Amino acid sequence: MLDLDHIIAHALNEDIGDGDHTSLAVIPRETGGKAHLKIKDNGILAGIPVAEKIFQKIDPALEMTIFKKDGEKIRPDDIAFEIKGKIQSILSAERLVLNFMQRLSGIATETHRVVEQIRGLDTKILDTRKTTPNLRELEKYAVRIGGGFNHRMGLYDMIMIKDNHVDFAGGVVPAIESVHKYLKITGRKLKIEIEVRNFEELYEVITHGKVDRIMLDNFSPEDLADAIGIINREFETEASGGINLSNVRQYAETGVDFISIGSVTHNFRSLDMSLKAVIPSIWDDDQA
Question: What is the average pLDDT value for the chain, to the nearest integer?
Fold first, then answer.
């Protein structure tokens, strides 16, 4: 399970080390002020709870006022939040907050783009295990914020028989039977998915059964439509491989239950945003 406190502590240690010496040198210790997170891109916001936790970890006295919540559409010049307190603390947290929020918002935005392409259809968009080590739960959270769904969280929560498993096991049927033997011995109850690469393997799986979902890997939209017809709702279906923003609707229109797209967590563009100091104007009420 995610230990966000540990992740943040490690990240702060990596960035700050024995001190943010620039801020310590330039800013008097007790100087207060505020800054806001300015959005510079169109997209979907994600990471506000993470930012809150980082600020609290740095300095519990910091006060955060939130104007935009995770999942909201954002555009240039929007202000997501304001942070108030010791300037040294704000500056020490700045880069880590931006690193998380830009990345998570980028994932949420990319996922949202894909989901929008299949609006009105029943197919669900899934992520994969192609995530940044140690940040998987956060990145999969961002996928959900963008409207997608999570596939398995890791190797432990689902049986996923891939091509290498089939080849090393000696075929589709031996692989499936080995899984059932293992589950019986260990007493585990896990859903079983198997990847097929062609119609020959598909017919083997349908004939043998004993799985919950069939992943059709690198099928063309036309072949996928034929395969969905052959499966005839006897098993859940998932498409993967070579699916992107430009062709995802064509794949979804086949009636496949799920489409897994790894690019939403490994080939996205981080959203541009910045943490800017709020400088009081001489015309502000509190300066009059």
Answer: 95
Of 143-152, 230-239, 274-283, the least confident: 274-283
CA 2/CA 167 separation, integer angstroms: 34
Which residues are identified as catalytic? 95, 130, 162, 195, 217
User: Looking at residue 1, what is its pLDDT?
Assistant: 53
- Report how far residue 275's alpha carbon sits from residue 39's, in angstroms, rounded to the nearest whole number: 9
- Amino acid letter at 147? G
Alpha carbon 177 to its chain's center: 33
Mean pLDDT of 18-45: 95
DSSP assignment of 223-281 equals HHHHHHHHHTTSSEEEEESS--TTTHHHHHTTT-SEEE-THHHHS--PPPEEEEE-PPP
Which whole-number Å values give the CA distances from 40 to 36, 72, 146, 272, 278, in the listed order?
13, 15, 18, 5, 16
Global pTM reads: 0.93
Angle between helices 48-58 and 4-16 (to 10 degrees): 60
